[in-house]
Design goal:
mainly alpha, 2 domains, three-stranded antiparallel sheet, 5 helices, about 45% helix, ubiquitin-protein transferase activity, zinc-finger, Znf_RING, RING-type domain-containing protein
């Protein structure tokens, strides 16, 4: 506020350092804020111009000119800040959409390098599915039984027993229920039973029982 002469008093409206309104976090609101600040600047400059005309053209006064410049710069800074925040939010939103699209893509199973040496493979640390996939690529591993030893295991026909639980009535390798007449192999060391095809494939890689991990010995 500056007193001009004896009776003239001019009031200049300044914009405080805080935000003109609560800034929403979404993108459209930031652009809207930038537009609002532009309109606010135009309005404030118009008020200053009207006051100047009403009181005899005090724009030449150095103090009023300084106030005018501060008002213009302050509004410009707030508008630039709003635009910068809007652009930053736009970049963040684009990155988020890219990440979401990648997460929605179907994951493909990792391929096993066909040049992997057998010395680099540890069947004891692999699941049944991994072992089966590895067998197709590398063939039988030397930690399993030999084909001759596997053929020596006795094969029986499955007969249902009413005293067995449901878990005992299925092959834990393929998770399928035994059916009457299925060819099964009870392991000689622990007597755990499996489908013939399942346990033979397993023993080509690992010579232990899938349930109790007891080593299978063929005499």
């Amino acid at each position: 506020m500056e007193e001009l002469g004896t009776h003239r008093t001019v009031t200049v409206h300044f914009v405080d350092g805080g935000a003109a309104q609560d800034l929403p976090t979404h993108l459209d609101a930031d652009f809207a804020l930038a537009k609002t600040l532009q309109e606010q600047e135009d309005s404030q400059l118009q008020d200053v111009s009207l006051s100047r005309d009403a009181f005899g053209g005090w724009a030449s006064s150095s103090s009023m000119f300084t106030a005018f410049q501060k008002l213009k710069v302050g509004l410009q800074l707030k508008r630039d800040e709003a635009l910068a925040r809007a652009l930053e939010d736009s970049d963040d939103q684009e990155q988020l959409m890219i990440m979401l699209s990648l997460q929605e893509r179907p994951q493909t199973a990792p391929q096993i390098d066909r040049d992997v040496r057998q010395d680099d493979v540890d069947p004891d640390a692999m699941s049944y599915e991994e072992l089966m996939g590895l067998t197709e690529v590398l063939g039988a591993q030397n930690k399993g039984l030999t084909p001759e030893e596997i053929r020596m295991l006795s094969v029986k026909k499955y007969k249902r027993c009413c005293f067995r639980s449901s878990k005992e009535e299925q092959c834990v390798i393929c998770q399928q229920q035994y059916q009457r007449g299925d060819s099964i192999i009870p392991l000689p060391s622990c007597k755990h039973t499996y489908h013939k095809k399942c346990i033979r494939k397993w023993l080509e890689i690992k010579k232990v029982c899938p349930i109790c991990n007891v080593e299978v010995e063929v005499h």
